[in-house]
Structures are given as structure tokens and as C-alpha cells.
Amino acid sequence: MVIFLELVLLGTGTTLTTPLRNPPGLLILIENKDHLVFDMGSGITRQLVKAGFDPKSVDYVFFTHLHIDHISDFPFFLKANWLLGRKNKLNVYGPKGFQKAIDLILKKVFPYMNGRIDLKITEINKGIVEKKENFTVSCVPVKHVAGSFAYKIESKGKSIVYSGDTAPCEPLIKLANEADLLIHECSFTDDYEDKMDDHTVPNQLGKLAAAANVKSLILTHMYPVCEGEEKNMIKSVRKSFRGQIIVGHDFLRVKL
Fold it and tell me: Does the pTM of the predicted model rise above 0.90?
């Protein structure tokens, strides 16, 4: 049986790594053949292998923004692909300035890696990022640091939206409208609402998911303060949102 879309959460935590949560990363499989990775926090290459995937099988890598907990494993991933004998092109997408960052990494920091992998780097803006016969990826800017984006993946009438890091914002609500699945950061508990203007807490997320009318919601990018508070976080989201709610954990797999 062909599953059109399958999600594997590789990392559901933050820079403050815990035994339960690796820094951010997720894998989306399309028709069991195209492998798309979104964000590569520290350890994501290992998480891929632990989940049963060859790093060489990844054809596309998308970055939501350039914070270290979202990009730090990328040089390691490139070296692993080189040592594994990768021959096919790797398509990589990131915000403005991403090309310069990769050039610095490959030419100045790790010059022995320069030219080892066939890379195609695309700096993204609002709209369609990649369009293939069996899937489309689009993006919108979100409310975090400059150059932060959320992505929408569509295939065969199904859709997944990944928020990256963001506070609630209208562009994301529009992007996620009627989506089958929204994977959204929920970095802190409601106690932190007045202290945060670039992340999302549960009660805000419930209102956002309801406004977007998504079918299912996965909470991710959770700081250690969230551990042990998961049931209370679900209750807070549930005050506004009536769809399925899942607290994400590393290696969770969801099929659409």
C-alpha cells in the first residue's frame, strides 16, 4: 500500500536537549520515495539513522530559519553523505543569507568539504518553494527573527504545515487553512505568555489551530519546562480547538 504522506518527528526539543527530546528536525516521506527533511538541529543525522533511514535517501532539505538549533547538524549531514558515497544532487532551501552562510562553512570553516557534495541551494521567499509532479512545497514569513518561514507540503489532496519557530501570526493561519495536519511549535507553558513575543504557548496555539480549521495538531519544539505539563498543555489547547491534539515526541510517525 502506498502512503502518500508520512511524517517522522526526528527532534521535538530545543537547544536545551533532554533525554526525551532532540533539537528540531522532521522527515516527510512522499509516496514512499521522496524524502524531505525540515530543519537539522544537532543530532538529526543520527536520528535519521536511528529511525531506519539512510542519509543518502534525503533529496530535499528545508530550513525554517538560521538559528543554531535548527541548522547545526547540516555540516555533519553533508560529511556523512560524502563518506557514504552520495552521488545524487541535494536540494537545499533556506532564507536570504543562507547561500553566504553555506559558502562560509564549506570554504572557510571546513574547506576539505567544499565540492564533495553536489548542492543546489535556493534562497526562499513567500510562495511556492518547490513543485514536483507528486508534491508542492510553499512558504510564508512568520513572526520570529527576520528570515523565519513556515512551510506547507501538499500531495494528492493532503497537506501538512510546519510552523518552524513563531509567535501566532495571520500569514501562518492562512497557510494552514483547512490543512490535514499542523505541526506547530509550543515552546513554553501558558505561564510564559507575557514573557514571549516570538514563540507560542498552548492557549495561543489552540486559538490559532481553531482559526485555521486544521484537522489535527502536533505540538513540538518544547523546552524542558514543558516536561510533566503535557496534560495541562493539551487542556489549554482544547479550550479553543476541537480537532485531534498530539504532543509530539521523537520518532513519532504519522501517516496521512
Answer: yes
